[in-house]
Design a protein that fits this description.
There is one protein chain. The chain is of the alpha+beta class and 364 residues long. It has two domains: 6-112; 128-363, Aminoglycoside phosphotransferase (APH), C-terminal lobe (Aminoglycoside 3'-phosphotransferase, Chain: A, domain 2, Alpha-Beta Complex). It is built from 13 helices and ten strands. It has helices at 6-17, 36-39, 74-87, 130-138, 144-161, 168-180, 185-190, 201-217, 263-278, 287-304, 314-325, 335-347, 360-363; strands at residues 21-27, 46-52, 55-61, 100-103, 109-112, 128-129, 226-227, 237-241, 247-251, 259-260. The protein has a three-stranded antiparallel β-sheet with strand order 1-2-3, covered by helices on one side. The longest helix is centred in the middle third of the chain and has 18 residues, at 144-161. This is Aminoglycoside phosphotransferase. InterPro entries: Aminoglycoside_PTrfase, Kinase-like_dom_sf. Pfam families: APH (PF01636).
């Protein structure tokens, strides 16, 4: 519940409207009973009145109520309210927005003025992109430190995935977004050329239908909801060597929410070992990248004991497989590499349990 104080409303109006503004009252719609301020919260509008440069004005302050329909977190609700703020006045007969803002930790109402884009400022970390280490390994230089770093990734994921949550709706949402979101499977599919000769429409159609089966299968796994990163791949990892020549790492660009299915993070990083193992024209995973892939998987399973993951990971491999096979995202892949990746995308959905130890049978 958001509790507005008179001084916070008055200060917001002065900052948002500018000029000589005096707050004259607030309360429920149709009333100026200021006790209504105490009850203001998600889904309960608040009528406010003011005088600006001697002219009376009034408006309605509203906030959204959190719900299970994709509005669980404040950043979800911010997206909706900013859309309304930006677009409502463009539609004839629609109520005109007068301002937007947010409530900070002290309860102050902070206005937003003429919003066009948002940005974030992060701390600067030392290190180099992990994919550069993979490029080095491609040239034949696999070090013991590389394997240990990979095991470190697995242990770190095991640690964050150990934080569980029991809100069923969030797990359902994560699976729904995995399949249907613009950034995930259906969105990636729509980014492929249409029609695409290497994977014609009838194959995409069959793939999408199969994914619906998996969506309903995963409704039986909501107990797996855990803390996740959401986009754990080599371009979102910074690595650095310590004094003993071992690697340490930091991560960037957490995505798609705090809670999800741990298989998402495991599929994302392990799929990139598959990709790098195929980049030089191979059609199966072998050599150093097979070693990295197996070290990652075995270390994760040893740390978590989570073999149930093998029952749920397939659609996450579909997502990441479609990304790395995409002619838009990876236009220079050899045709046989793209064929192998698209084979994995189809075949992985046919097994009830993913056979991580025999990854090559999905690539053939």
């Amino acid at each position: 519940m958001i509790e507005m104080k008179r001084e916070h409303i008055e200060r917001y109006l002065q900052e948002a409207l500018g000029g000589d503004v005096t707050f004259t009252g607030a309360g429920d719609i149709g009333s100026l009973d200021e006790q209504g301020i105490k009850d203001f919260g998600y889904g309960k509008p608040l009528l406010v009145r003011w005088e600006k440069d001697g002219v009376s004005g009034e408006g309605v302050i509203s906030a959204m109520r959190g719900d299970k329909y994709g509005h669980q977190d404040y950043w979800d609700r911010a997206r909706i309210l900013l859309f309304q703020y930006e677009t409502s006045a463009r539609l004839s007969k629609h109520v005109r927005p007068l301002g937007a803002g947010y409530v900070n930790a002290e309860g102050r109402m902070i206005p937003l003025h003429e919003v066009r884009e948002f940005f974030i400022v992060n701390e600067k970390l030392e290190g180099s992109d992990y994919f550069l280490e993979l490029e080095r390994i491609r040239k034949g230089e696999l070090l013991g430190q590389d394997l240990e770093l990979t095991r470190g990734f697995a242990r770190w994921l095991a640690e964050i995935h150990g934080v569980k949550h029991d809100e069923v709706d969030r797990y359902d949402r994560r699976i729904r977004n995995l399949i249907g979101d613009c950034e995930c499977i259906y969105g990636i599919i729509d980014g492929y050329p249409h029609p695409y000769s290497m994977f014609p429409p009838e194959r995409f159609l069959a793939l999408e239908k199969r994914l619906v089966d998996w969506r309903w299968k995963l409704k039986g796994y909501t107990h797996r909801l855990a803390e996740v990163h959401g986009d754990f791949h080599p371009w979102n990892v910074l690595v650095r060597r310590d004094e003993g020549a071992a690697f340490d790492f930091s991560v960037l660009d957490r995505s798609r929410g705090v809670w999800g299915e741990p298989a998402d993070d495991v599929a994302t990083m392990s799929m990139n070992y598959v990709l790098y193992g195929l980049l030089d024209g191979n059609t199966q995973l072998e050599g150093p990248f097979l070693d990295l892939y197996m070290a990652f998987w075995e270390s994760y399973l040893e740390a978590t004991g989570d073999r149930e993951m093998l029952e749920v990971i397939a659609p996450f491999y579909v997502f990441r497989g479609l990304v790395v096979a995409s002619p838009e995202w990876y236009p220079r892949l050899a045709p046989q590499v793209r064929t192998a990746l698209l084979s994995l995308v189809e075949k992985v959905l046919e097994d009830e349990r993913f056979d991580y130890a025999d990854i090559n049978r999905y690539l053939r």
